Amino acid sequence: MPMTPEDLDQLARRRANAKLGWYVHALAFVLVNTLIFAMSRYAFGTRPWSVYPLLGWGLGLVLHGVSVFLLGSGSGLRERMVQREREALQRRQDRP
Fold it and tell me: Which DSSP symbol is given to 46?
């Protein structure tokens, strides 16, 4: 079923907004973790405690990226999975 130009525009906007959100998240990650690293190094001694927020937030950033770039609306993986589910449901419905 082909998409209308309006559907394509809406999907393109949704995907662009999701990607822009990830880029903003990544920029905040870099800036805040640079500040935390500097504080841990110069203001609070040399204890490497800054690695813990870096790892936790880094995991969140990776998961956000996976949701946007791999599983997001309109991604190839998601579309293939939706198509498989549609076909399975159609087969189940067509059975006598």
Answer: S
3-state secondary structure of 2: coil
Taking the C-alpha atoms of residue 1 and residue 16, their distance in angstroms, rounded to an integer, is 23
The token pair that represents 93 in the structure block: 């419905």
Q: What is the DSSP letter of 49?
A: T
Neighbours of 67 (CB within 10 A): 14
76-93: pLDDT as tens digits: 777 777 778 888 888 888
Q: Are 25 and 85 in contact (CB under 8 A)?
A: no
Give the structural domain span for 83: 5-94
pTM: 0.72
Q: In whole angstroms, what is the distance from residue 16 CA to residue 73 CA?
A: 11
Question: What gap in Å lies between CA 80 and CA 27, rounded to an integer?
Answer: 31
The answer to whether 61 and 29 are in contact (CB under 8 A) is yes
- Own/partner long-range contacts of 5-11 (Cβ < 8 Å, ≥24 apart): 11/73, 11/74
